[in-house]
Amino acid sequence: MHRTLPPLLVLLLALGAAVPAGAAQTRAYMTTTDFSSAGAVSRIQLDNRAVHADAAPVFKDAVLRWYDGLLYVVNRFGQDNIQVIDPAAGYATIRNFSVGNGSNPQDICFVSPTKAYVSRLGSADLLVVNPSDPAGLPMSSIPLAAFADGDGVPDLARMVRVDRRLFVVCQRLTGFQPSNPSLVVAIDTQTDAVIDANPVLPGTQAIALAGRNPLTTFAFDRAASRLLIGCAGNFGQPDGGIEAIDPVGLTSLGFVITEAELGGDVLGLAWYSPTHSYAIVGDDEFNTDLVSWNPATGERIAPVYQPGGFSLSDVEVNDRGEVYVANSGFVTPGVLVFAAGADNLLAGPLDVGLAPFDIVFDAPDNLVTGVPPEVAVDTRLSAPWPNPSRSGVQLDLRLGAPARIEAEVFDLAGRNVRRLIDEVATVGARVISWDLHDQGGARVAAGIYLLRIAVDGRSSVRRVAVLR
Questions:
Q1: Where in the chain are all domains bearing CATH 2.130.10.10?
Q2: Which of 58, 90, 277, 383 could bridge across to 39 with cysteines, CB 3.0–4.6 Å?
Q3: Average pLDDT, rounded, for the chain
Q4: CATH 2.130.10.10, domain 21-368, yes or no
Q5: Long-range CB contacts (< 8 A, 24+ apart) of 231-240?
Q6: pLDDT tier, 340 (very low <50, low <70, confident <90, very high otherwise)
């Protein structure tokens, strides 16, 4: 029987259409700084872009998170605390709690109003706190020293929660240099246990990244059900890129686009659609540019904003289809607004007081919900390799329990190109291969194809680039 992918998935993958459920966000918030002694939180109304500068004082080195109507300020090295600001109370600081002197917190990620995780660059333990407690007393901590490099500290950085799983970046730097392979640790937020990413190997394994020095926020490609993160590698060298992670199979899918293709070190990342998203890149002359790129093909589209100098510090996309960019340079600091997809300037630079550094909207920016499990937890599916390919590709599949396996190839129009497997398999490892021929035996044309692997009806989709 001739089968096609679901129309919505085809639309998202092939056309890259962004269909927001309705613009719920109303404000952009940003930390601002003079980089020496002072910092503040400012805001921009999204409907008319009215600015309220210096709404609340914060530390000079701070990043923002928004959760449940409150702003959580991660005051980093030299302050080492979480500051909670209530916009409904005139931007008053309603709580402020330490996370350990010298611990250098990097991120806070929430499970509920009474449970959150705090990553700290200077500690080998992931902190579990009650952010509603006036003292923010730690509920517990999760030791992650097993994932450290030689200095005993794993350099815990950015986090994202995908439903019940928390993903924590271990940069594993030595003297702030990416001397070691970087990891992502997966944690079950219901039990606070580290999830073994590769049960075949002894011990508890993390997700090993292809790139080093992951320093951007996570983005989520919902159409392909994959996490994305920018790995800068060594600054000034084209050794990094934007890497994809399977949050169910707990494996790296490799680079979606490299720094050589993007045009510089990856310093910022923002998701808009499967065919049009954004990155901040820095070149070897210390200039930062905002560029658009295509996650479906792994190609750079065009430069969007090139102010010159090392001036761009953050980029975010709101649910109205607007790209907000922080220019923290000395010449014309401010926030600029571009039309997502079209890339034309809508407003700015908007003066927000001190130089803008970190931007959030009034919605959780490191929380992904409603992700159906693609494959069973005890199943592992590798990325296809080689990819791109001229002669054939294969994937490694490991089953933790007997299951029915279906493997099919589709083109970007959703047409079924080849049925590879439909059988019941036993526990263990097997290889799924495609020789780049269609159902009739003819070699397929060059282009992007989708490999759909279903295990007991739960699907995972992988992209494959076929070359001439």
A1: 21-368
A2: 58
A3: 88
A4: yes
A5: 231/182, 231/266, 232/178, 232/259, 232/265, 232/266, 232/267, 233/178, 233/259, 233/265, 234/177, 234/178, 235/265, 235/282, 236/265, 236/284, 239/211, 239/212, 240/211, 240/212, 240/213, 240/265, 240/266
A6: very high
